[in-house]
């Protein structure tokens, strides 16, 4: 815009306030309506997903954004101040119902919201009134809750605390940090995570990958001859790094959650729709857990229960199975077909 003004040269007079709030605003509204009409044609051809995204502004108002996703892209429909209806299921249902009617019930395949109790009730009401659509909670949120539940397990919580102590000591002291970077080829243990719930599990993977380097560091002459090594905190740090039980627990947790971290990357990706990959990804998580710990059921059982609660009871829908079977990556794989024959009934229920 600035370049365009500069090209006009001296003497250009900007649009006045009245024109901006009147004619230009009205024209822009009409342009947006025309764009939504173009999207409507795509929704009729391919179907679409309605996404409900809530947030709280600086004045503590609860706002709900309604968006529609299709292969053409994501279209923003409207934003509503729902502060007065958030806890009233009927009023919230009416808001969502109006959006479904605007988009066209015959065009809506999927409605996605968060999984608080009000939205669960609304999802059931929508499925009851509009038989062609499916409701489900956000996959990212459900996977995050799996990590949150796993983090509350006693052995996991204890191991996370020990790992946190190691990280804090290293990153809060210059000499240990310099020495650590030297032993791990100037790489970092701390790595970015897609969401806050998985941060500790990513850190645990990173620490475990540097186990030998960290042990070599605390037994090196450079460390033992330094003034830092004589401090009480340093001795506690060394004890943790040399604690075999801690590393064994790290290994178990990483083995059990590695596939689940991959699932989070799948559902959090902006490059491709996750619905065709989610069923198989969760199946792989369960399969990997059982395979790795088939002789130690007491270790894996709490993880499988969390998976069953969050996936089987909250997230999984026939739509996920249909997405799996219609995904070319799996559809023509005979081995996959044999493993998941029992899910054909879920596919046939989709209409």
Can you offer a commentary on this structure?
- The protein is of the alpha/beta class and 351 residues long.
- It folds into two domains: 45-137, Nucleotidyltransferase, domain 5; 144-316, no CATH class.
- It contains 18 helices and five strands.
- It has helices at 2-8, 17-46, 89-103, 117-129, 139-151, 154-171, 174-183, 199-209, 211-218, 221-224, 232-241, 244-267, 275-292, 297-315, 318-325, 328-331, 334-339, 344-349, and strands spanning 48-56, 62-70, 73-81, 108-113, 134-137.
- The chain has a five-stranded mixed beta sheet.
- The longest helix is centred in the N-terminal third of the chain and has 30 residues, at 17-46.
What are the SSEs and their pairings?
Blueprint lengths: L1 H7 L8 H30 L1 E9 L5 E9 L2 E9 L7 H15 L4 E6 L3 H13 L4 E4 L1 H13 L2 H18 L2 H10 L15 H11 L1 H8 L2 H4 L7 H10 L2 H24 L7 H18 L4 H19 L2 H8 L2 H4 L2 H6 L4 H6 L2
Parallel strand pairs: 1-4, 4-5
Antiparallel strand pairs: 1-2, 2-3
SS strand fraction: 5-15%
Mean pLDDT: 87
- According to DSSP, the number of beta strands is 5
**Largest β-sheet summary:** 5 strands, mixed
Q: Could you estimate the helical fraction of the residues in percent?
A: 55-70%
Give the termini separation.
48 Å
Q: What value does the Rg take, in angstroms? A: 27 Å
Low-confidence stretches: none
* C-alpha geometry: globular
Number of domains: 2
Structural class of the helices, strands and pairings?
alpha/beta
If strands are numbered along the chain, what order do they take across the biggest sheet? 3-2-1-4-5
Count of alpha and pi helical runs: 18
- The string of secondary-structure elements, in order, is HHEEEHEHEHHHHHHHHHHHHHH
Domain DUF659: 19-166
Pfam family, one: DUF659
InterPro entries: DUF659, RNaseH-like_sf
